[in-house]
Amino acid sequence: MKVILVIILFSLFELFNLDFEEDHKYGLEFFLKNPIAVMIMGSVVAPLLEESQFRLPLSKKRNALILPFFISLIMVIVKSLDNAVWIETLVYTSYLIFLLTCFTFHKKYVLKPKIAIFTTTIFFSLVHVFSYELHEPSFATHLLTLLAVSPQFIGGLMLAYIRIKFGFWYGVLFHGIWNFLIVSFILIPLVLFEESLL
């Protein structure tokens, strides 16, 4: 079944002329010029920020919403000043509104943890959509980009489980190890075969 799904996905990517390695916002040259920075950002900084922003709100404590709120507020400001795609700013603004609503109506929010888990996971997935550049934006390419970030959705659910079951720092640690492995699988071949790729 998994093989059939992979064949269908790759067929759709080919049909719509999508190459997610080349269309990634940070191309091969960025990875080759900054391998250590990429490793630190991907394995330490991103997991700490993303877990603070998307999994810290899963706490039953109202104060756990403050840091994610300020991280999201900074992201809205940065994206607005950076002339980011308007929808990217909208996603961060929507998440900011979600956090503000949770803070304001904290008692109701605590009673429905499944809503909090799925909402934070959906936003976690949506912010990863903007890691790709779409040269020919269309409904089909946006749909395929959403499929491309489905691992982030599944990973977000796993990280939410780890966060709730074992604690915040275990989620950060797992996220960091996961990103380290992914970045390593990208960087090692790039560094080893740098000349043949350029």
From TrEMBL:
The keyword DNA repair does not apply. It holds the Pfam family Rce1-like. The keyword Acyltransferase does not apply. Residues 34-181 form the CAAX prenyl protease 2/Lysostaphin resistance protein A-like domain. It comes from the Bacteria. Keywords: Membrane, Transmembrane, Transmembrane helix. The chain crosses the membrane at residues 61-78, 84-103, 115-133, 139-161, 168-192. This is Type II CAAX prenyl endopeptidase Rce1 family protein.
